[in-house]
Specification:
This protein is an alpha+beta fold. It contains seven helices and 15 strands. It binds D-MYO-inositol-1-phosphate and calcium ion.
């Protein structure tokens, strides 16, 4: 992949995320309601998730009509260029629905299955996180480094929960057993923001079971390019089964504890 292509993809992702973030901030209806549900009655879609995905795909496909798409709200095309965009038009939809600030637009570009560019736009914080593979991560123009690693018992750990009762029961049990072993636990409501918070040192670590590629694609690259480590179970890459991200010295102890607690299964 040429630097020129990577820069083109990054500029496009930044532009599409900026436009979607502006739409979502300015045009959120005061009486915003649920348009549809997905895996359960509490896994919701709003009209603004759909409008945001449409805007992002329109913006990207106008510039690069041969690329493929995978979007949370249904976009799924192969494309013929080798580039595929992985899009979460609102990550943190429940926060957005309730008027809470922790939601983001997440856009990643993959080439032959490998994430090469990631952008997470967080309008409520006026923050744009971005990364290109091998070139580091940024918050706006500022290069990012993850926080120096504390011991596990002093670590602030983010996590999230799924929308299906069986999974939530398992996740609650993991939290019950983990909470006494760490500084504290945060549940922000947007996996993309959690991964960026590991990248910029606002969290020491983060884990979650059951994420989809659109939740983690951009944020994982940003965390990794900021110097954090990411993965799944020991020796396994980050995936839907389990996502773990942490500053380098914390990563293995956290990953080991999650494995012992069974955080990778329901
Ligand atoms: C959700 C958020 C949340 C995480 C859930 C995701 P959505 O994405 O990232 O933090 O705990 O697993 O599904 O539904 O708001 O796009
Ligand atoms: Ca999401």
């Amino acid at each position: 992949m040429t630097d020129r292509l990577k820069n083109e993809l990054l500029d496009l992702a930044l532009e599409a995320a900026r436009r979607a973030g502006a739409l979502l901030s300015k045009s959120r209806p005061a009486d915003l309601g649920v348009a549809a549900t997905k895996t359960s009655a509490i896994d919701v879609v709003t009209e603004m998730d759909i409008a945001s995905e449409k805007l992002i795909i329109g913006c990207l496909s106008e510039a690069r009509p041969d690329d493929g798409f995978l979007g949370e709200e249904g976009a799924s095309t192969e494309g013929s260029s080798g580039v595929r965009w992985v899009i979460d038009p609102i990550d943190g939809t429940v926060n957005y629905l309730y008027g809470l600030p922790a939601w983001a637009v997440s856009i990643a570009a993959e080439i032959d299955g490998e994430t090469v560019v990631g952008v997470v736009e967080i309008p409520s914080r006026c923050e744009t996180f971005s990364a290109a593979s091998g070139e580091g991560a940024r918050l706006g123009d500022r290069p990012l480094r993850s926080r120096p690693s504390p011991p596990l018992d002093q670590a602030l750990i983010g996590t999230g929960f799924g929308y299906v009762v069986e999974r939530k029961l398992g996740q609650a049990e993991v939290v019950r057993r983990m909470l006494p072993e760490v500084r504290d636990i945060r549940r922000g409501g947007s996996a993309a923001i959690d991964l960026c918070d590991v990248a910029c040192g606002r969290l020491d670590g983060y884990y979650e079971r059951g994420l989809n590629p659109w939740d983690y694609a951009a944020g994982e690259l940003i965390a990794r390019e900021a110097g954090a480590r990411t993965g799944g179970r020991p020796g396994v890459p980050l995936s839907t089964e389990l996502a773990v991200a942490a500053s380098p010295g914390l990563f293995e102890p956290l990953q080991r504890m999650l494995d012992e607690l069974g955080a990778w299964h329901d």
